[in-house]
Design a protein that fits this description.
single chain; 91 residues; mainly alpha; 434 Repressor (Amino-terminal Domain); 75% helix; elongated
Length: 91
C-alpha cells in the first residue's frame, strides 16, 4: 500500500465522519464531547490528518448509532469516489 492509498483512506474516513456528523446536526465540539475526545482531534480526523485507533473509530460510530462495519463501508465508498476523481484528472 503506497502513501497515496494511505492518504485516500484517511481522507475517506474524514469525509464519512463529516458527512454523518453534519447529517445529524452535530458540531465538532458536540461530537467530541459525546465520544470523549478533543474537538481538535475530531477536526483533524475530518481533514484526514489522523490514523484513528479502532477504539476511537468505535466511539465515533457509536455516536452516529452505526456499527463500525457500516462506517467502514461508507469509508470504502468515499475512497472509491476519491480514486475515481483522481483518475479523471488530466496528467
Amino acid at each position: 500500500m503506497n502513501t497515496d492509498t494511505h492518504h485516500s483512506i484517511l481522507v475517506g474516513l474524514g469525509n464519512a465522519v463529516r458527512r454523518h456528523r453534519v447529517m445529524r446536526g452535530f458540531s465538532q465540539e458536540a461530537l467530541a464531547e459525546m465520544v470523549g475526545l478533543h474537538r481538535t482531534y475530531i477536526g483533524s480526523v475530518e481533514r484526514g490528518e489522523r490514523n484513528v485507533s479502532l477504539l476511537n473509530l468505535a466511539k465515533i460510530a457509536n455516536a452516529f448509532d452505526l456499527s463500525v462495519s457500516k462506517l467502514l463501508n461508507d469509508v470504502e465508498q468515499e475512497v472509491e469516489e476519491l480514486t475515481n476523481e483522481f483518475s479523471k484528472q488530466p496528467k
